[in-house]
Amino acid sequence: MADPTAASAPAAHTASGPSPAVMATYARQNIVFERGAGCWLTATTGEQFLDFGSGVAVNALGHAHPHLVSALTEQAGKLWHTSNLYRVAGQERLAERLCQKTFADKVFFCNSGAEACEGAIKAARRYHYAKGNPERWRIITFQGAFHGRTLTALSAAGNPAYLEGFGEPAAGFDHVAFADLDAARDAITEETAAIMVEPVQGEGGVRILPAEFLAGLRELCDKHGLLLVLDEVQTGVGRTGTFFAYEQAGIVPDLMAIAKGIGGGFPLGAILATNDAASGMVPGTHGSTFGGNPLAMAVANAVLDVVLEDGFLEDVARKSARLRQGLAEIEDEYSDLVAEIRIAGLLTGLKLRDAVKPAQVVAASLAEKLLLVGASDNVVRLLPPLVVSEEEIADGLARLKRALSALRRTST
Length: 412
Ligand SMILES: *Cc1c(COP(=O)(O)O)cnc(C)c1O
What we know:
Blueprint: E1 33-37, E2 40-43, E3 48-51, H1 54-57, H2 66-76, H3 89-101, E4 106-110, H4 113-130, E5 138-142, H5 151-157, H6 160-163, E6 173-176, H7 181-187, E7 192-197, E8 200-201, E9 207-208, H8 211-224, E10 227-231, H9 246-249, E11 255-258, E12 269-273, H10 294-307, H11 312-333, E13 338-344, E14 347-352, H12 358-367, E15 370-371, E16 373-375, E17 379-382, H13 390-411
Parallel strand pairs: 3-15, 5-6, 5-7, 7-10, 10-11
Antiparallel strand pairs: 1-2, 2-3, 4-12, 8-9, 11-12, 13-14, 14-17, 16-17
Helix pairs in contact: 2-10, 3-10, 11-13, 12-13
């Protein structure tokens, strides 16, 4: 037992490294942030960092956005939690706004991306069950996918490294090659319920699916009576330059999992569905104690106030073009380190040459006080808050160049 009188004493480990009391599931940088404003974070040492990670595509409006802070603090003085045994005004408002701006007719609120993906999987299976086809429960997914860390979400993605040591993966998923329409078609059987896909694989390394491919999946689903389930946990809420990424492919899904940006840093996920796709989800089929609680709803409604303002998403697209231009220069100038640039709005990545690892670029950037995030496929991601300014983009690119120059000096 820890000595309770020691609770207010400063932690002895802050200077030396992370506390062993926190389970070591993450390889953390030895930095503690104390406050943030916009795209900037201040560490306990007083150092300032330019945040091009956004808490892994979460802080869509940066840190301490005044409209979000006031929405949260105002709600905090009124009501935190009532459970879903009662109506929640903020849920009804947020659900109606999401339905108005997307393909959806219905929304279920939860707390994370994994939970949203699991819920979408349940809804897809239950849809066929309710239609009298309980044998249709298998779901086609794609290699390189990431749907979260719960056992079913891991089984859906099928990444062996993440499943190792956790027993038999959950059954009912058929994994096919990335962006391979023929493989998806060939995997369809009498037991298939749905196809589940990220329009852009984020954790997978900013791997962008062509619009024709997504249209092809939509066609397959229509032809075979399958549901198209999109995982827009990372691509949603403006990250790729439109409210949701599917808009750019000219298709609509039947079900969609969202999280990350919708809460602007407050934990929130949701399942969006058409009336038909939601038809199996009757009372008692699903639930979440915290899902859609008044605090999360106040923040998410405030996020939508900003993101859906006239011109906001056009601005994101313009900033994306500026970032693309800068990254193209970097691709030229540092072609010994950078193999390719990948850009979907402000979800951007540098695919590195085999000799360079994302962790090296993250570390070199950290030395320049620039925060980046690694990904699979030897990619390092730049995910600035959507409110990033043109000056901050230029600043970030300059820091990245200095980091790559330093890396080049040490590796040659
Ligand atoms: C982050 C992510 C998830 C998991 O979200 P959590 O909130 O960590 O559970 C699922 N799908 C995609 C595409 C993601 O990027």
